[in-house]
Amino acid sequence: MTETWATRAGLDLFLAPEAARGARPRRALEDALRDAVRTGRLAAGTRVPSSRSLAADLGIARNTVAEVYGQLVAEGWFEARVGSGTWVGERPRPAARPAPPERTTRPAADLRAGLPDGTQLPRSAWTAATRRAIEALGPGELGYTPRVGLPRLREEVAEYVARTRGVVARPDDVVVTTGFSETLALVCAALRASGARRLAVEAYGHERHRAIARAAGLDLQVLPVDDDGARVDLLDADAVLLTPAHQFPTGVPLAPARRVAVARWAEATDGLVVEDDYDGELRYDRRPVGALQALAPGHVVYAGTANKAFAPSLGVGWAVAPGWLVAELERIRADRGVRADGLGQAVLADLLATHAYDRHVRRVRVAYRERRDRLAAALASRVPRAQLRGLPAGLHVVVELPDGVAASAAVEAGERHGVLFEALADFRAAVPGIVGGADADGRCVVVGFGAPPAHAYAAALEGTVAALAEAAG
Ligand SMILES: Cc1ncc(COP(=O)(O)O)c(C=O)c1O
């Protein structure tokens, strides 16, 4: 006798081992089926197996099953449909949960920093890549994906980051992760395991990333950020997390002299730089500044992600790491039981190999630049005393409001106008000792322009500009 049964309609259901066993199989089966309906394992509208096939699966008489079905039909648990078998009925459902209260406010346009517009995704190229990837998966690739990533994807990523960002990368240096957050968690764990105690972070950034470092057991040194980026001359740590191409979220690039200085610092102290290149592909003015990693490949882990230029739901990021760190990242992933999705990796490898990924990035770069230009133009005409700060790059801008205007007032005005954006201060490390970049931050808001679908952007832009104009008086 078996513990599961199957139908010709393809239904598998786990029945408790005692179902249909013992001296009273009919009673046991009835109870098991009622229980399956009551708990929702057998959903209303499901066709149940024919009495013949269930009887065969359970090794009991067909009549017994037919009688059980008859009984459950009589009680309303099942429905018999002429010519099409027996179905789970609608009636004995667990009490429905009360409906949530209706929203009284319009949902806000989400203008938080850094979210891309999912409607821009190249769905047909993505579908075609998925089809090709499935067709091309060799028997070896259908097994467990190596912890460090699918070999084809490691090759494609090495080529892509070398070509587009100037990273010094061989396929063996690449570790595929689920995104920057996982890369950071793994790197912090590797640092801690190697005896490191302190990670320096920029004064502005995601609290989520600082929390990941703390959770790995690292103390934080907070580096002030000024118009040349993070004050790396103040470094007093084992490693440093930087966003050199486009400081997040202030938008300033790390000045060339500081890039060189931090590379020299890492070499001299055997320190590690974690380079978060979250939006390196989305630069709108001139040729992108290449990756810092190229200045000291043995001491920099370059971290990229497809979650910005493509979509967070893809859930793929990558690290290009020095050899010792690749081995450590692999070990830590194994200890944590993490193994990425091989099919998703095969699809991304195809998108990269066919340059569909590049074409997508080029297309969205044009679209996002246009959004940024529209925002800049609207602000210049309607809130002329506000200033945009930071490089024209990425999916957000920092707007510095005029003297005396609090960012919090602008955020509240945004809510009234149906748009959600954040104050720059929300990104500041809650650690004392910041000396730079703080003069204006109480007047700065961070406005993302990536997330709204194209057709909703005009309204989101109008709401934003109206809110900022209102706050600025
Ligand atoms: C500064 C920064 N780094 C990295 C990321 C990407 O993180 P993940 O790949 O975990 O989505 C983001 C996304 O919001 C970000 O803002």
Description of the structure:
The structure is a single chain. By secondary structure, the protein is α/β, with parallel strands linked by helices. It folds into three domains: 4-88, Arc Repressor Mutant, subunit A; 109-116 and 361-472, Aspartate Aminotransferase, domain 1 (Alpha-Beta Complex); 119-358, Aspartate Aminotransferase, domain 2 (3-Layer(aba) Sandwich). The protein has 14 helices and 19 strands. The strands form six sheets. The protein has a seven-stranded mixed β-sheet, sandwiched between helices. Strands 15-16-19-18 form a four-stranded antiparallel β-sheet, with helices on one face. A two-stranded antiparallel sheet has the order 1-2. The protein is globular, with a radius of gyration of 29 Å.
Strand arrangement in the largest pleated sheet: 6-14-13-12-11-7-8
Percent range for helical residues? 25-40%
Separation, N- and C-terminal Cα atoms: 78 Å
The total count of helices amounts to 14
Enumerate the distinct ligands: pyridoxal-5'-phosphate
CATH architecture of the largest domain: 3-Layer(aba) Sandwich
- Assign the CATH superfamily of the largest domain: Type I PLP-dependent aspartate aminotransferase-like (Major domain)
Shape: globular
